[in-house]
Amino acid sequence: MTRALMITGTDTGVGKTLLGCALAAAAKARRMRVGVMKPAETGCAAAHGDLAPADAQALIGAASAEFPLALVCPYRYPSPLAPACAAEADGLPAPDPGKIERCFREIAEQSDLVIVEGAGGISVPITWRFNYADLALRLGLEVVLVVGNRLGCLNATILSVHYAKARNLNLRGYVLNDIEPAVTAAAKTKAESLKRLVDVPCLGLIRHQRPVDAAIIDALFG
Ligand SMILES: Nc1ncnc2c1ncn2[C@@H]1O[C@H](COP(=O)(O)OP(=O)(O)OP(=O)(O)O)[C@@H](O)[C@H]1O
Ligand SMILES: [Mg+2]
Fold first, then answer.
1. Right CATH number for 3-221 from 3.30.1360.120, 3.40.50.300, 3.40.605.10, 1.10.3210.10?
2. H-type alpha helices, 53-152
3. Model's pTM, two decimal places?
4. Does any ligand 1 atom lie closer than 6 A to the CB of residue 150?
């Protein structure tokens, strides 16, 4: 049976693509057929009369996937905003959840594992009536939360976990990512604090500028 995982985060820029690529590459190395998706990507640069979705392209590369970009990333916007906001700001059609589902099903049919990267956090609006939690429910995705280890992340983690539970998501756990170079006193204490405050499993830690630990892969697929 195909497994499908949404990589969400406490915020934008916390390491979702980094983890998604590492998981995709690890699953590929295990001879799994890996599909990837970034259903809506914003902040896309113009390239050759089109919009280039950097995250989707990175995921495709990591998975050595052959799916066309139009299937992996059906919605792209120049403005670096939440998808619902970017669609309005750019005067482009908002994402259609039905179309995202059709793209996902087509990829999933040909995959053992599909990795779906969100945008920003779990309650970010894809449309004004449909957010990433709705997408996870609609597509039956397991969810992993990437926590960017910086000041404010305890609150963001607690709220994200609380919301995921309230929405009955299949939240597998969180990964704490040292996105900042200096290991400050605050950053050092986060792993322990989160264990005390959050009752979902810690699937692993990613150290600054270090490869993603295979233990995270095992925790998810082992
Ligand atoms: N552990 C780390 N060590 C060093 N740099 C990191 C680490 N994790 C992430 N980064 C860097 O931080 C930036 C943001 O990471 P990434 O693009 O994976 O975040 P994201 O959550 O996918 O962001 P977005 O919300 O834009 O999709 C990237 O430049 C990435 O290389
Ligand atoms: Mg990303």
1. 3.40.50.300
2. 54-63, 69-72, 83-90, 97-109, 132-139
3. 0.97
4. no
